[in-house]
Amino acid sequence: MSSTNLKVTIDGSAGAAAPYEQLRAQIADRARTGRLPAGFKLPTVRGLAEELGLAANTVAKAYRALEADGVIETRGRNGTFVAAVGDAAAREAAAAAQAFADRARRLGLTLEGARAAADEALRARYAQ
Question: Half-sphere exposure of residue 48, counting CA atoms within 13 Å on the CB side?
């Protein structure tokens, strides 16, 4: 299944990531690399769901995750648009890293222990 507007392709084969995650990841990647510029108007949830052959709830879940990550923004009846994400993503990552560092310190981890935990989590996430 693919979208002509967004150049999104959903792999329905066994073992592929969940469709909403594939959609979320592809839109996020295109927004962060500039292939979907800030201000680009995304299709409606129903429109994209029909185009991709997905349930509307699947597309809505992807859009909610993208909005929570600051990749897209909904402007009421005007629609959903790609947000200016570069700075927002960097700020959010820095805040998450600071929260992790604070928590690791409260747990009594050494610097090496905290780095090892963070490295393991990153390896697990990025190995997908």
Answer: 26
